[in-house]
Amino acid sequence: IPVEPFDLVIFGGTGDLARRKILPGLYRRLADGQMPPEARVIGAARSDMDDAAFRALVGEALEEFLPDNAKDPERIAEFLELLSYVRVDATGEDGWAALKEHIREGTVHAFYFSVGPSLFGPIAERLKSQGIADDKSRIVVEKPFGKDLQTARALNESLACHFDETQIYRIDHYLGKETVQNLMAVRFGNMLFEPLWNSRYVDHIQITVAETVGVGGRGEYYDRSGAMRDMVQNHLLQLLCLIAMEPPGRFEDESVRDEKLKVIRALKPVAPEDIVRGQYADGDEPGYKSAVNNPSSKTESFIALRLGIANWRWSGTPFYLRTGKRLKARASEIAVVFKDAPHSIFDGPPGQSNVLSIRLQPNEGMEMVVTIKEPGPGGMRLIQVPLDMSFADALGEQAEDIPDAYERLIMDVIRGNQTLFMRGDEVEAAWAWTDPVIEGWEDRGATPSPYEQGSTGPEEALMLLHQDGRRWREIK
Length: 476
Ligand code: NAD
Hints:
Largest sheet: 9 strands, mixed
Distance between the termini: 35 Å
Shape: globular
Bound molecules: nicotinamide-adenine-dinucleotide
Structural class: alpha/beta
């Protein structure tokens, strides 16, 4: 769907996120013919540089972060033409008047805050006091949105002083993934799944976000955060909400976000025995403690949780969540594991349960595992086979064009569609649930268990499901 002409200002336009994700995403929209020729992108950051230097920096970023088959020199030149740069001091007075000059009348105005959260308030304040943003402007803010309920509230308040909630787009790029939206299409576009989508037929649900990378250069930030704050409070809980929510009346902003909020509010408190925390030990790479340069760190680089949702639909169905760094493979998946058939009419071992798995990465797609008869004359032997719904196979060339989450979400901002963004009350509710869990282990002085690099996390994480007579799906 085409978008209106826009002026997009990227605060932190020279930073890592802008170079890695935002600018390559915008280029792809242009290369796809989805960017109006009148669109303008304005980098705003602390470094002193002119338009030419900014274009050169973005040109290098595109070279580095775009796959080779997406690089078209003519299109890249066209894209660089849309860029300009203003040096702005987010906490001072410099550059704001110049920025105002860059914003045209009659276009959609969006301001992407790709800077640390301590600058959200000062930027919001200046955008308004300098007369740069108005009641129709949109602002986009990045994670981390606070580190607990109190800081998230303070951030919300600092934005709410200057912008209405309908103007604020809190990004969670997991929600921009094609498969996540496809999950909505599958759940609410088919008769097949929704009648089974409850504790009567679903045995349990697993959500895994496994990374192979370690903490990298983010050690200092990560050590203050940990997997619970960095991944569970936002990305994994958002995925859980989409899986567990009641059907919204419409696929639109408020209906979807109202339903997600109800799920977060229905989350049961978590007991210590429902949590496993881990920290990667020394291995091929220096272990977690060395990576963050803190020999006494008690921060988790892995977490597994058993959650319950207190409502009619999910009473009694466990949700198992796990995420961690330096694991065996980079794989994100949601798996809905159905109950066994109530009675087997066949001799021999019964078939295993049906599983609907939704892969977020790699190879976005879905798979339904069903039981069939093993071919051949050997009698009625049951085997499990996947009904594979890989986008690549089913959609051919169309699947090669799946837009990255960031480009889709930025275009949603320009369209004024908030469905895939978190509302302020949702973020606060998520922290209100997360805080006591973290306080619990801090009060107990709990230390995470060491785990081997390249593994699936600490042994205790396996036990968490074994105790319940279940097992994690393979990370592959
Ligand atoms: P970065 O340090 O690479 O870039 C920061 C940018 O902010 C630079 O352009 C810098 O010039 C600008 N800046 C800093 N202080 C300023 C000031 N006073 N006035 C004007 N500009 C100023 O950081 P990043 O990695 O790009 O991250 C930006 C935000 O996005 C952070 O909040 C981060 O947590 C979040 N984030 C980053 C990633 C990622 O992959 N890098 C992923 C998710 C969220």
